[in-house]
């Protein structure tokens, strides 16, 4: 059965590899978005490719992509939304970072993905799958306590995690139950989760990273396509292992 995935920041790194691998299936109608479609590498495959201009840091660009994607989808729904785009200010710290850079990071890594999910929701609602994948990082895990590096990037990805997270809390004093009402809780009919691609050899990850893009992405696709309602609101690695918050 035909499926329709959309990927942000698809002209390089993990997004480009995702596009390549998804195009291997003739059933896929892949919508690859990027800031500058002219710089999108020429890709071919049995699948169908549409390249759409979208800058996750610009609300106007996100809104302008809606009618373009609508014309591509027609009566079809959007099966998979990969919120993949992200920026980093590098290895800054809690007491040594740029305020403008921090703001750029929050807009691109949190506000942009949240707005994309909000505006693309009508397309997702028409799908039989309804999957939202927000690409995060192990640096966002408070439980793993990876350390002080890349402070603003880590903070932004932890905020992205909270956008998705679904967890039950017991408020002891009042003996009542409270749940976080974010994506997973607000829409139980949608499968929304965060996924760490691992340390990948991309421009952001650097040459010293552990994974080749094809290794990470093959795991990502397997994890995403096998996701069920039980996956919603959880934090996974690319290989399907659950990560501590």
TrEMBL record:
Full protein name: C-factor
Pfam family, one: adh_short
Record-annotated membrane-spanning stretches: none
Acetylation in keyword set: no
Gene3D superfamilies found in the cross-reference section: NAD(P)-binding Rossmann-like Domain (3.40.50.720)
GO MF annotation terms: oxidoreductase activity
Keywords tagged on the record: NADP, Oxidoreductase
Family per record: Belongs to the short-chain dehydrogenases/reductases (SDR) family.
Domain of life: Eukaryota
Keyword NADP in record: yes
CC terms in the record's Gene Ontology section: cytoplasm
